[in-house]
Design a protein that fits this description.
Strand order of the largest sheet of chain B: 2-4-5-7-6
Distance between the termini of chain A: 37 Å
Number of domains of chain A: 1
Distance between the termini of chain B: 98 Å
Largest sheet of chain A: 5 strands, mixed
Order of helices and strands of chain A: HEEHEEHEEHEEEEHE
Strand content of chain A: 25-35%
CATH architecture of the largest domain in chain B: Up-down Bundle
Structural class of chain B: alpha/beta
Number of helices of chain B: 26
CATH topology of the largest domain in chain B: A middle domain of Talin 1
Helix content of chain B: 55-70%
Strand content of chain B: 5-15%
Strand order of the largest sheet of chain A: 2-1-11-5-6
Shape of chain A: globular
CATH superfamily of chain A: Oxidoreductase, molybdopterin-binding domain
Largest sheet of chain B: 5 strands, mixed
Number of domains of chain B: 4
Largest interface: A-B, 25 and 24 residues
CATH topology of chain A: Sulfite Oxidase, Chain A, domain 2
CATH architecture of chain A: Alpha-Beta Complex
Radius of gyration of chain B: 63 Å
Number of strands of chain B: 13
Number of helices of chain A: 5
Number of strands of chain A: 11
Oligomer: heterodimer
CATH class of chain A: Alpha Beta
């Protein structure tokens, strides 16, 4: 079921996004596009945007965050690239981030959050990739293990799952 | 105390409440999760979107619309676990109804998966199944709506409950804090009140001690003033009283009718009572003011007991009581005056309160160094309830006794003070109707046994005739007169002077054997006069007359060179005692120190003849006249002698001789004739003889007032003062 849904999303996304001009330093995704970054960025691989497939994301510097969350029962291990690494990869400016989910849920993340904390864009839970039904393909995970104060409603609101795009102000 | 306990209790409860609040907060922290209601709404919204996607696919069943439908279902599916997991049920307060509903929603969402998964990739089948999918999605939507509504309602309820709980907790805390604040305020107020009370108490104490010190100083000053006043008053009263009593004594020696004698006795008795009262008050005030000091000396017990016997035996006899003193022959060491005073006082009391029977004084040694004196009577005794009053100031056991016996009620108090001042004890053993035994004990070491010596025949003293020339220096006319009269009764030649200056002149001018010197006098007081006389080389014995008998006064007397002192009032006994000590021995034959005895003028044949002719009354009148004239003449003779006026002297002698012969006073006549050789001696004897004419035993009808001219010789001295 999961395996089936991924191509479906990839397909959907491919349909939605027109063919982009390849940017200089950013490779084109080879798999289904799971994340599109737009706005104040220097590097692109599509028209005005940078597109990523899971391979590309997982190639970036990342982190394993082992935490309890309100969305799952029990402790889970989340892993994926640091958002700061993703932003570096696209040469993002200093503006805040607007994270948009598949269901159009949007949350604003201040740049300080990703600069100060190792916030990741988790692509795996307990080592497994996440389908849309499992809140995939990526999930903004704050390091509750680093700072317990982060465990709050405000941060829960910024913890976007089924991330589809990021806009850099 | 209660406040402190209350505040501690309240504080503890507040701490506990805060802890529980903290616990609650932790629960809330732990329970922070995505809002369950929000999850339900999200699910509901996704379900709605799914239905929209299905409608869109039905109208135009393209691969895009089908993909969109698929994404919608996946999104809805991703939300399903949030509703089924345990945390949802916890967030909803464990309400089973909603948990069941949520489980139903989950089941209905998940149960759609096989259908969708079965048609994915098969566009035709997908399209065919769209109505079923719509129906199923509608069912999901219905359930999610219900879930959202119930969740919202529950959430609202939970919010209210939680808010109320918090409100209650805060209310309780507020109340507790309020009470605690109130308690603290009360504690602070109490402390403030206590502090104020403390400071007020301290101020009060300070003020009180200040007042007390002031009051004490005032009381002391007042007491001192009172004592001084009492001493002065009693002195002032005693002086005239002395005059009254002395005069009465003199009067008693004159022939009187029975009625007169009785009245005179009343005067003397009253006077003596008054004197006792005044003496008591004076003693008491002296003791109060602390001026009286014990004079501890060694003396023979007999020395104080004999006077007691001589004074008290007649009184006891007069009251019809047996009186006896038993005492060992010892010499003891304490204050003799005080011991005697106490014994006299106790005996006096015993005599007063004993109607019949006996009063006995028993003296013995209670220990090797303690003297015990018991005064036992056979009187009415004293009831138990009256005992505490006995030694108290101004109390007599009943008012009747006071009326009957008089007195100040100070006697026993004075005794107690005196004995206590001597470190002794005083007490009484008694019972109503059985008599009393008043006793006291004083330390009297060293006590020495004495060989029994015949006690001085004090009772015989009255009969002793003294001889000598005695000068009384005294400014008070009455005292002077009384002293002179008494001295003359004792057989001596008395001379008077009004102040120290005159006294010195008299001693210089006359042959004086003994001087009684008053202390306080105008011009020159007794001390100064004594000093001067001693400086001038006179060795004549001088006896001070002290008014208040203070120790300091006596010391001053002796310091100034006096040989003795005598405390006023002057009585016959006191004077006799002094004369015994300081004149050259009693002489029953009453002769001056030369060979020629001044014979008491005897009426001779001439007198008898005269009386036969003129009658006894006429002769008595003549003698009275003669007594006056003769004294005047003796005075003139003295003046003339001092002034060296032989003519005047001879004329006076001549006159005197003539009168004496006429009235049969041969001795006087002989002396007047004899004048010339040893003039001084002769004139003294002449004066003595002339003086004797005034004596009642001699002349009979001569009133005592007449004696004041010649015998005292004051006129002589007065005129001699001029030279």
């Amino acid at each position: 079921m999961m395996m089936r849904s991924l191509p479906a999303i990839a397909l959907g996304l491919t349909v939605l996004l027109p063919n982009a001009v390849a940017a200089d330093a950013l490779a084109r995704p080879t798999g289904p596009v799971v994340l599109t970054i737009s706005g104040d960025i220097e590097k692109t691989n599509a028209e005005g945007a940078a597109e990523f497939d899971l391979e590309m994301l997982e190639a970036l510097p990342g982190r394993e965050t082992v935490i309890d969350t309100p969305w799952y029962s029990g402790t889970k291990t989340f892993s994926g690239p640091l958002i700061s690494a993703v932003l570096d990869a696209v040469g993002a400016g200093e503006g805040a981030l607007k994270v948009i989910a598949l269901n159009d849920y949007t949350a604003e993340i201040p740049r300080d959050d990703v600069d100060e904390y190792p916030v990741i864009l988790a692509t795996r839970i307990d080592g497994e990739r996440m389908s849309v039904r499992e809140k995939g393909p990526s999930f903004v995970i704050y390091p509750f293990d680093v700072d317990r104060d982060l465990y709050s409603e405000v941060i829960f609101g910024r913890s976007v799952w089924q991330v589809a795009a990021i806009e850099v102000d | 105390m209660i406040l402190t306990a209350t505040s501690v209790g309240i504080f503890a409860s507040i701490v506990i409440m805060f802890l529980s609040l903290e616990e609650r907060q932790k629960e809330i922290d732990a329970g922070i999760r995505e809002n369950a209601v929000w999850a339900a709404y999200q699910a509901d919204r996704e379900a709605g979107r799914l239905i929209e996607a299905i409608f869109a696919a039905e109208q135009s069943p393209t691969p895009e619309t089908l993909d969109a439908l698929l994404l919608r279902y996946d999104l809805l599916y991703s939300r399903a676990p949030l509703l089924s997991e345990g945390k949802f049920s916890v967030a909803m307060g464990g309400d089973t109804a909603i948990v069941d509903k949520a489980a139903e929603v989950y089941d209905s969402i998940v149960s759609l998966a096989p259908l969708i998964d079965g048609v994915v990739g098969d566009g035709e089948a997908f399209r065919r199944e769209l109505p079923r999918l719509r129906e199923h999605a509608g069912d999901i939507r219905e359930r999610t709506q219900r879930l959202a509504q119930i969740g919202n309602a529950l959430n609202n309820q939970a919010r209210i409950v939680s808010r109320n709980q918090v409100k209650q907790t805060y209310h309780r805390i507020a109340v507790s804090v309020g009470i605690l604040t109130l308690t603290l305020a009360m504690i602070v107020a109490l402390l403030a009140i206590q502090l104020r009370q403390l400071s007020r108490a301290r101020q009060k104490l300070e003020a009180m001690s200040e007042r007390n010190a002031k009051a004490a100083a005032e009381a002391e000053a007042g007491n001192h003033a009172k004592s001084v006043f009492l001493a002065a008053m009693s002195h002032e009263i005693r002086t005239p009283l002395n005059g009254i009593l002395g005069t009465a004594e003199v009067l008693a020696d004159t022939p009187l009718t029975a009625a007169q004698k009785q009245r005179l006795e009343t005067i003397r008795h009253s006077g003596n009572l008054l004197l006792d009262v005044i003496s008591d008050i004076l003693d008491f005030s002296k003791l109060e003011s602390g001026e009286a000091k014990a004079e501890i000396v060694s003396f023979s017990l007999a020395d104080i007991l004999e006077p007691v016997r001589s004074i008290m035996a007649p009184r006891a006899e007069a009251a019809g009581l047996d009186f006896d003193i038993e005492a060992p022959d010892v010499s003891i060491t304490t204050d003799p005056t005080w011991i005697r005073q106490v014994i006299v006082n106790l005996v006096n009391n015993a005599i007063k309160f004993t109607a019949s029977g006996s009063v006995k004084v028993a003296v013995r040694l209670a220990a090797a160094d303690r003297l015990r004196v018991e005064v036992r009577d056979s009187g009415v005794g004293i009831g138990k309830k009256d005992l505490p009053k006995l030694f108290r100031e101004f109390s007599q056991i009943d008012a009747g006794a006071r009326r009957k016996f008089g007195g100040t009620g100070l006697g026993l108090v004075i005794c107690k003070r005196l004995i206590e001042a001597l470190d002794g004890r005083i007490g009484v053993e008694t019972s109503q109707g059985r008599g009393s035994c008043f006793w006291f004990e004083v330390p009297a070491a060293p006590i020495e046994l004495q060989a029994r010596t015949p006690s001085p025949a004090s009772t015989a003293r009255a009969g002793i005739r003294h001889s000598g020339r005695v000068l009384v220096v005294e400014d008070n006319a009455i005292n002077r007169q009384v002293a002179c009269d008494l001295l003359m009764r004792l057989g001596v030649d008395a001379f008077c002077a009004e102040d120290g200056q005159q006294g010195i002149e008299a001693v210089v001018a006359e042959r004086i054997d003994l001087v009684f010197m008053d202390m306080q006098m105008p011009v020159m007081d007794g001390i100064a006069a004594t000093r001067k006389l001693r400086e001038m080389g006179f060795r004549t014995p001088i006896v001070g007359l002290t008014a208040n008998a203070f120790v300091s006064d006596r010391a001053a007397c002796l310091d100034a060179g006096m040989n003795d002192y005598l405390s006023k009032p002057v009585t016959r006994d006191k004077l006799a005692g002094i004369l015994d000590n300081w004149l050259s021995g009693p002489s029953d034959t009453a002769k001056p120190d030369d060979t020629a005895p001044p014979m008491p003028p005897q009426p001779n044949a001439q007198r008898v003849a005269l009386e036969a002719e003129l009658g006894a009354d006429t002769v008595a009148n003549l003698i009275e006249q003669f007594a006056l004239n003769a004294r005047d003449l003796v005075g003139k003779i003295r003046i003339a002698e001092i002034e060296g006026d032989a003519v005047a002297r001879d004329r006076a002698l001549h006159t005197l001789k003539g009168s004496a012969l006429t009235l049969g006073f041969d001795e006087i006549a002989r002396l007047a004739t004899q004048f010339g050789g040893d003039e001084k001696n002769v004139i003294d004897r002449l004066a003595w003889s002339v003086e004797a004419v005034g004596r009642p035993e001699e002349v009979g009808q001569v009133p005592p007032s007449d004696s004041e001219h010649g015998a005292c010789g004051s006129s002589v001295l007065k005129s001699s003062a001029g030279t």
